[in-house]
Amino acid sequence: MSTNRHPIEQEELMAYLDGELPPDRATEALSHLELCSECQTLAADFRGVSRELMAWEVESPEVGIPSEIDAALGERLRKRKPAKVSSPRLEKRVMTSRWIWAGALAIVCVAVGLKLTLTGRNRNEDRSTAYPSMASIEQYLMSDRNAEIALARSAAPQSISSDAKILVLGWRGYETAREGKNGFVCVVERSWMSPFNSAEFWNPKVRVPGCFNPAAARSILPLTIKRTELVLAGLSKGQMIDSIKAGFDNKELPAPPEPGAMCYMMSRAGHLNDAVGHYVPHLMFYFPLTDKSSWGADLPDSPVTLNPQFQGGPEPITEFVIPVGKWSDGTAAPVM
User: What single-letter DSSP state applies at residue 170?
Assistant: First the structure.
């Protein structure tokens, strides 16, 4: 993998999937994976190989070779002398035969390698076009309303989410499932909250639980609701971008984010995308457009990463990610 095109090496990608990267590199890897279909393919392949290795078992033969037969075979092999080639013509034929087999083996290896390369390329192309357009709305909805409520609450510790307002996705958009008392709002976002150029923008499997604090519920959550309304109205990506820009221009959408706007994303049950699954527990912080250096984001050993969610999009927002060490239920998260 070339570092000119990819900020992470293959070894780092494997370490990321194993939970062995430091937080700053892990969040940088996630940011890249959200946009790079080639690395998503590679990550999925690594996960598949890992699962196969974990499941692989070498079975012992039920019936072994009797010791007497084994001893006799060993004795015969020890007494057997290597055959000698007495005829020059035969020796030449033997050498020619060896070269033919060596050449055939080389051809087979090249053919296998070429097939693997083409297969990998095809997989990459298939994955980059796996979600070319919106699926049926049923695939984005959760049939079990209580399950979606529980998933939304899992975004934050119970001390916060138990008194939070809960939204669930319906046919016409998000609707209130539970009223809250502390100003927080928990919701399960869908794939269209990814960057507009993400390969998984229409992935119906994406479920991202988030719990917005009061400032974010007033100034960031409306963007989730707006994008969802536009999607359900059947607008194209270009039309959505134009509509969001118009919403900021006519003050329909709040801007900039309120001071202190943040979101809990600590659920272990979500699905961020196909490559990383539920990722790691983390907190999101929202600001007006600003340079990432003001937070030291993406610097060596810094736990802060610039999130690509709104980068290049119509929303004038800068979003930072900070991983945390526990899931919302209090259990320890993988060491990153």
Answer: E
Radius of gyration for the alpha carbons in the chain, expressed in angstroms and rounded: 28
The pairing of strands 317-323 and 262-265 is unpaired
Residue type, 109: C
Q: Give the list of residues 6+ apart from residue 119 with CB closer than 8 angstroms, or none.
A: none
β-partners of residue 282 are 265, 323
* CA dist list (Å): 136 to 38, 131, 142, 157: 26, 12, 13, 33
pLDDT tens-digit readout, 13-69:
777 666 666 655 666 776 676 667 677 777 767 666 655 555 555 444 444 555 665
Distance, CA of 208 to CA of 189 (rounded, Å): 5
Query: Which residues, 6 or more positions from 285, have their beta carbon under 8 angstroms from its beta carbon?
Result: 261, 262, 319, 320, 322
| Nearest-angstrom CA–CA distance, 125 and 199 | 11
Rounded Cα distance between 320 and 309, Å, is 10
How far from 275 is each of 13, 45, 64, 67, 304, CA to CA, in Å?
Answer: 11, 9, 44, 51, 21
With 0.85 as the threshold, say if the pTM is over it.
no
Give 260's DSSP letter: T
Residues paired with residue 332 on neighbouring β-strands, in sequence order: 326
Tell which residue, 283, 292, 281, has the closest CA to residue 317.
Answer: 292
- d(CA 10, CA 36) in angstroms, rounded, equals 13
Q: Looking up tokens 């600003």, which residue turns up?
A: 290
Q: Report residues of the chain scoring pLDDT below 70.
A: 1-5, 16-27, 30-31, 33-35, 37, 44, 46-129, 335-336
Burial 137-169 (b: 16+ CB within 10 A, else e): eeebeeeeeeebbbbbbbbbbeebbeebbbbbb
Amino acid of residue 275:
A
